[in-house]
Design a protein that fits this description.
The complex is a heterodimer of chains A (about 270) and B (about 210). Chain A is of the alpha+beta class and about 270 residues long. Chain A has seven helices and five strands. Chain A has a five-stranded mixed β-sheet with strand order 1-2-3-5-4, with helices on one face. In chain A, strand 2 and strand 3 form a beta hairpin. The radius of gyration of chain A is 34 Å and the shape is elongated. In chain B, helix 1 packs parallel to helix 7 and helix 5 packs antiparallel against helix 6. The N and C termini of chain B lie far apart (about 45 Å). Chain B is an all-alpha fold and about 210 residues long. The model of chain B has no long low-confidence stretch (mean pLDDT about 85). The longest helix of chain B has 29 residues. The chains are: A alpha+beta (about 270), B mainly alpha (about 210). At the A-B interface, helix 2 of A face helix 6 and helix 7 of B.
Chain lengths: ~270, ~210
């Protein structure tokens, strides 16, 4: 057999055998390569899915957190602004019923009751207004934002330079998200940034809404905020997420903050 | 030496019969599977006929090889057409079939010998399809027919060269035994191919059939 293989004509068979072996080797390594890449790709996809899930969980947690925070605030407001004052009214009324009061004392008590009820009424109106501004329902987003800005200008001594162009591009629920985002931004500027001047621009282009917001507050470190976001920013982020929009922000400590938001959702 | 060849040939045939029977029972499950099962049945019929013509009638059975070449190409092309879902597969199949017809008609003597160009062309195209299927199943968690695909890939790569060099058998200077070495190698690859097909069935269809 070996002799035969060494014959000149048999050389060709040897070459064919070698070629087959080389091909086989390459084919087997290709199959192995396929299996290893597949393993890697599936692991990467799994990781991606896990990341997505953890992000969703995070979002859910922050939503619940925001909700709890809101409830706490409402409870506090109800307690401070309404319950305690109604208590005063109830006490004063008791005094009146029990009698033994001079006329001028009665008069003063009644005046006091009237003042407290008026204040309580005003507080409850403000509370309801904060929960859902009626102007948004009745006059639309542009009017609501303008009113919001005016409120901040009056009460917080904040200078707001606003330029809002908007024509019913978004659905009602999305309008509310935009409103809440701007409300949150203004709150953050005042509460955390101690800002005195804010510029707010909102305009439309190609069925998209663009919002540009900047303040002159203390600013924040973008890197550390990215790692550990506060509830306010998380809230803004999840709302932008619902709008299927994009959010970008930039800030430096001591140099204010800039937020850019664009929506993607046409009117439903 | 021929005894050893007979034994591995019989083992190959045994697995082929086994696979044909078990795949026929799972036939209705999938369109791609139908073509693969028909391929197995045709392989079995042609192998047995070749054996009968060669060993019993002692005539040349090489023309069966050309028949098998075409049937294999058509059925496996259809198999991969259903796996890859690409119209291109059908188009390429028609072009190659037209080419093969032209080739055989222009040289009728080609039917009685191995057809190296036809073998290389058809099997290379099938190998490309297996590569496409590998690529397609890269990010699928449980791809169907993966083992069959590996089997087809390995067997076609190795056997292309063996069959393409088949006409060496007519070279009188090469001893029959030496050439038989290639045939033995082919038979061994064929057993591996059939075993992979069997494992595929065992993994995917055995439980389903026995549950229902």
């Amino acid at each position: 057999m070996e002799k035969e293989l060494l014959q000149e004509d048999s050389q060709i068979i040897v070459i064919i055998l070698i070629a087959i072996m080389v091909l086989l080797l390459m084919a087997v390594s290709l199959v192995l390569f396929f299996f290893f890449s597949r393993k890697k790709i599936i692991a990467a996809e799994l990781e991606k899915a896990n990341l997505e899930i953890s992000y969703q969980k995070d979002l859910l947690h922050s939503t619940i957190e925001v909700q709890e925070e809101e409830r706490k605030r409402i409870a506090q407001d109800l307690h401070d602004a309404i319950s305690s004052k109604l208590n005063v009214v109830s006490l004063s009324t008791n005094f009146l019923i029990d009698g033994n009061l001079q006329d001028d004392e009665k008069d003063r008590t009644l005046q006091h009751i009237l003042a407290v009820t008026t204040k309580t009424l005003e507080s409850s109106r403000r509370l309801a207004h904060n929960l859902l501004p009626p102007i948004l329902e009745n006059f639309g987003l542009q009017a609501a934002i303008e009113e919001l800005c005016d409120e901040f200008i009056c009460s917080q001594k904040l200078q707001i330079d606003h330029n809002i162009v908007y024509t019913n591009l978004l659905s009602k629920s999305n309008e509310l998200h935009i409103f809440r985002i701007i409300q949150e931004l203004l709150n953050n500027s005042v509460r955390h940034g101690n800002a005195t001047k804010v510029t707010l621009q909102m305009n439309e282009e190609n069925e998209q809404v663009f919002i540009k917001y900047s303040d002159n507050g203390t600013g924040f470190d973008v890197k550390s905020v990215n790692k550990n976001k506060g509830i306010g920013l998380k809230n803004i982020e999840s709302r932008v997420d619902i709008l299927d929009g994009e959010l970008s922000y930039d800030s430096k400590i001591g140099k204010g903050a800039t937020f850019n938001i664009s929506t993607n959702t046409p009117k439903q | 030496m021929p005894l050893f060849y007979h034994i591995i040939f019989l083992i190959g045939i045994f697995f082929l019969i086994l696979n044909t029977v078990i795949y026929s029972r799972a036939l209705y499950r999938n369109k791609a599977l139908v073509f693969f099962t028909v391929f197995l049945i045709c392989s079995l019929i042609i192998q047995l006929t070749m054996r009968y013509i060669g060993a019993v009638l002692h005539e040349s059975n090489l023309y069966m090889n050309n028949v098998f070449l075409i049937i294999q190409f058509i059925l496996l092309s259809m198999f991969y057409y259903h796996l890859l879902n690409k119209k291109m597969v059908l188009g390429l199949m028609l072009i190659v079939l037209v080419f093969l017809c032209y080739q055989y008609l222009s040289d009728l003597g080609l039917i009685m010998v191995y057809n190296p160009i036809g073998i290389t062309l058809t099997q290379s195209i099938l190998i490309v399809y297996t590569m496409f299927y590998f690529y397609k199943s890269l990010n699928t968690e449980r791809p169907k027919f993966l083992l069959i695909n590996i089997g087809v890939f390995l067997y076609l790569i190795c056997s292309t060269l063996i069959f393409a060099s088949g006409n060496l058998i007519f070279n009188v200077n090469i001893p029959q035994e030496t050439y038989l070495l290639l045939m033995k190698l082919n038979a061994i690859f064929y057993i591996i191919f059939q075993i992979l097909i069997f494992i595929e069935w065992r993994k995917n269809y055995y439980k389903k059939i026995h549950r229902s």
